[in-house]
Amino acid sequence: EAGVTQSPTHLIKTRGQQATLRCSPISGHTSVYWYQQALGLGLQFLLWYDEGEERNRGNFPPRFSGRQFPNYSSELNVNALELEDSALYLCASSLEGRSFSGANVLTFGAGSRLTVL
Amino acid sequence: AQKVTQAQTEISVVEKEDVTLDCVYETRDTTYYLFWYKQPPSGELVFLIRRNSFDEQNEISGRYSWNFQKSTSSFNFTITASQVVDSAVYFCALSEAKRVQGAQKLVFGQGTRLTINP
């Protein structure tokens, strides 16, 4: 079974540009989560999508947005990039569904490393 | 608000030593779940264990063991006879059990970077 796959592995952008990161969940998983792991700051929750809808959002500005497609894959868009957006962006998937259970285990991808110059 | 604290930023030990990674959490919920994840240099977080708030039994899996104590809000992780392959960043995490839209995400601690030296 394929795991959570993310692309691109690495991305280099300059300030003010836009970045798009992509995530394919494990087959059968309907929920996708995005986390930001900036250097020394641990993992910060960004977004949670399920069944094509945004279910929850972390404390990030509106220039961080995303969507989930009918096949449950997801993309994260970061507009007007700033230097502090440089980080590893991790995607995770789970079988959440509408019957959310905190017990569900999130399976993570290897991440996309975004560098903003 | 939920919070997870991993006070040890970095730990370095010599191979075969035992090492304990501390995790302290805060939550107002009576039902919650605690997790440990391992992040090797490749970057991918690997699930290690899940424990619900009603199960305080300690768990052992090979060289890994976990000590959950609600009285001290701690969920510590011990590696016995450490090996170089155990070198990684380890994260403790907490999740609510609410079943409503907009429900809680997984809240992570800051992580502990464990280095096992040969």
Describe this structure in words.
The complex is a heterodimer of chains A (117) and B (118). With 117 residues, chain A is an all-beta fold. Chain A has strands at 5-7, 10-13, 19-24, 31-37, 43-50, 53-57, 64-68, 74-78, 87-94, 107-108, 112-116. In chain A, the strands form two sheets. In chain A, strands 2, 4, 5, 6, 9, 10 and 11 form a seven-stranded mixed β-sheet that branches. The termini of chain A are far apart. The model of chain A has no long low-confidence stretch (mean pLDDT 91). Chain B is mainly beta and 118 residues long. Chain B has no helices and twelve strands. In chain B, strands 2, 5, 6, 10, 11 and 12 form a six-stranded mixed β-sheet that branches. The radius of gyration of chain B is 14 Å and the shape is globular. The relative contact order of chain B is 0.34. The model of chain B has no long low-confidence stretch (mean pLDDT 90). Classes of the chains: A mainly beta (117), B mainly beta (118). Chain A binds chain B through residues 3, 33, 35, 41-43, 45, 48, 55-56, 58, 88, 90, 92, 98-103, 105-111, 113, and chain B through 31-33, 35, 37, 42-47, 50, 52, 91, 95-111.
Feature tags:
heterodimer; A: 117 residues; mainly beta; 7-stranded mixed sheet; 4-stranded antiparallel sheet; B: 118 residues; 12 strands; globular
Question: What order do the helices and strands come in, and which of them pair?
Answer:
The complex is a heterodimer of chains A (117) and B (118).
Chain A: E1 5-7, E2 10-13, E3 19-24, E4 31-37, E5 43-50, E6 53-57, E7 64-68, E8 74-78, E9 87-94, E10 107-108, E11 112-116
Parallel strand pairs in A: 2-11
Antiparallel strand pairs in A: 1-3, 3-8, 4-5, 4-9, 5-6, 7-8, 9-10, 9-11
Chain B: E1 3-5, E2 10-14, E3 19-21, E4 24-26, E5 32-39, E6 46-52, E7 59-61, E8 64-69, E9 74-79, E10 88-96, E11 107-108, E12 112-117
Parallel strand pairs in B: 2-12
Antiparallel strand pairs in B: 1-4, 3-9, 5-6, 5-10, 7-8, 8-9, 10-11, 10-12
